[in-house]
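Lab notebook, bench 4. Continuing the backlog of folding jobs that were queued last week. Each job is logged with the same field layout so the records can be merged later without manual cleanup. Today's entry covers Lysophospholipase L1-like esterase, a 234-residue chain. Filled in by technician R.K.

JOB TYPE: sequence-to-structure
TARGET: Lysophospholipase L1-like esterase
LENGTH: 234
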Amino acid sequence: MGTRRRQLAAAGLCVLALTAGASVPTHPASTGARPMRVVVIGDSLSTGCGTSPQLAWPALLGADSRFKGNVNIINAAENVSGYLSQGDFQGTFGTQVNSFVTPDTDTVILFGSENDIGYAPDAVRDAATTTIHAAKTTAPNARVIVIGPPSYTPEPEPERLQVRHAIKAAAANAKAQFVDPISESWISGQVDELIGPDGDHPTEAGQHYLLEHMQRLIGDPGAQLAKANEASRT
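JOB STATUS: finished
OUTPUT FIELD FOLLOWS
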């Protein structure tokens, strides 16, 4: 079965795990300051497909003791979506940005997507550039973190590398931070523990693994929010 057909077949098992636009409940920060607004743009790696929405890394992030009350997580991820690939609700990363990124957004995380394998690399690059620019234009003070697709093997297929290269170029064009799970060997070497029986989606342990990476990328939410508030006053 080809890569695209495998993705669609696996996504068909995840209908109940859709969380597009779900806001992770938080409590007001004890200091009275508004929580930092984080919007997650992504595919089934971020919806909880294979486990549940409550065990997806965005939900785990919102429940973490360092983030709870200080961060409001908006999980806009949609199964099967990508910069060009349309998800289960015909959404793309671009429509997720247009629907959920607001001027008061403090951090935008774009994660993926292997679903863009099979599209022309130049088209992926152009769509990603447009999407990242849209996020930065809508939320000019936001930190935009662009994360490429991971690989579960040390020798990813050429088509996956083409998508990675296209997204990396788009992030550079838009002057956004780029994180490369392939070069950093995310998940690779720990597939049996971190990836479920469908061979594509994270287990509960896999979601906690992604959570740890996202925590490090976001850093101290209090410091990030203070920086964002300072930028909004200048």
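OBSERVATION: Helices lie at 3-11, 57-63, 93-100, 121-138, 158-173, 191-194, 204-218, 221-233.
SIGNED: R.K.
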